[in-house]
Design goal:
This protein is an alpha/beta fold. It is built from seven helices and eleven strands. Helix 3 (about 75-85) packs across helix 7 (about 235-260), helix 4 packs across helix 5 (about 200-215) and helix 5 packs across helix 6. The longest helix is centred in the middle third of the chain and has 27 residues, at about 135-160.
């Protein structure tokens, strides 16, 4: 067989391939895991997001090694799935929801009538004003707008300290719900950050901002990149561990509040 033909036949798939596997549970049930073979992946990775569990395999990783990886991390997987299923909060409910999570704490909330549906600060707490006709969709929009305004206020306090040391500023910053990531930076300099960051520890939120800003200097995760991060955020390992422990709960909390 010619060498060129042999190379073509043995080449890994160039497109992402997806299927589903089942992890059997002790009670007779099972957990569905989306298995994704991605040519861009460099290592086997197990993650949990709002779409459930996902196993990512590099092009040359065997199916057996992927299944072994799942079983080795079985307890972690079940713990994360439990956090996503029950974040410990109830959906936003008129006159029943009495507090909202924000910046690692809980802020008292009261409800009142108003011409527009919105959340405003009032003393040490919050007030959700709404007309009688406001439905769940209007409440969810008001809550999302409130959280985005709070997150942008934080970014506005932090950004000026970091911009002088960058080759350029982000072209824009978008706040949205992200399945597994906390932030990303596009080639055109547009940054995306997970809106649920505003629910947690502000220092951890600031670390994610620093992480993405450093990608403007080093568009990779090389040692040079991590040197840039450490120069600006010496406690970055602590914040990374925070997300490993609390990240699923933060994302699930926001999802529950905004969608019920």
């Amino acid at each position: 067989m010619p060498d060129r033909l042999r190379r073509l036949l043995s080449a890994p798939p160039r497109r992402v391939q997806r299927d589903v596997i089942q992890l059997a549970l002790d009670d007779g049930g099972s957990v569905e895991i989306q298995r994704v073979r991605d040519p861009r992946a460099r290592r086997i990775r197990l993650s949990v997001g709002d779409r459930g569990a996902r196993l990512t395999l590099p092009a040359r990783a065997s199916l057996v090694s992927g299944e072994r990886f799942v079983h080795e991390h079985r307890e972690w997987l079940l713990e994360q799935l439990a956090r996503w299923a029950d974040p410990g909060v109830r959906p936003l409910t008129p006159d029943e929801t009495t507090s909202l999570p924000l910046r690692g704490g809980s802020i008292p909330l009261r409800w009142s009538s108003g011409r527009y549906t919105r959340i405003v600060h009032a003393g040490e707490g919050l007030v959700l004003q709404r007309p009688a006709s406001a439905g769940p969709a209007a409440l969810a929009r008001a809550l999302r707008d409130f959280y985005e305004a709070e997150a942008r206020a934080d970014l506005g306090r932090w950004l000026p300290a970091y911009l002088p040391g960058l080759p350029a500023a982000p072209s824009r910053i978008r706040l949205r719900q992200m399945s597994s990531q906390w932030g990303s930076l596009a080639p055109n300099g547009a940054m995306s950050l997970d809106l649920s960051l505003v629910l947690g520890d502000p220092a951890a939120f600031e670390y994610v901002l620093v992480h993405e800003l450093c990608h403007l200097i080093q568009p990779n995760h090389s040692p040079a990149f991590w040197s840039e991060v450490e120069a600006r955020c010496p406690d970055w390992r602590h914040h990374r561990d925070y997300f490993r422990g609390e990240g699923a709960r933060l994302k699930a909390t926001l999802r529950t509040l905004l969608t019920g």
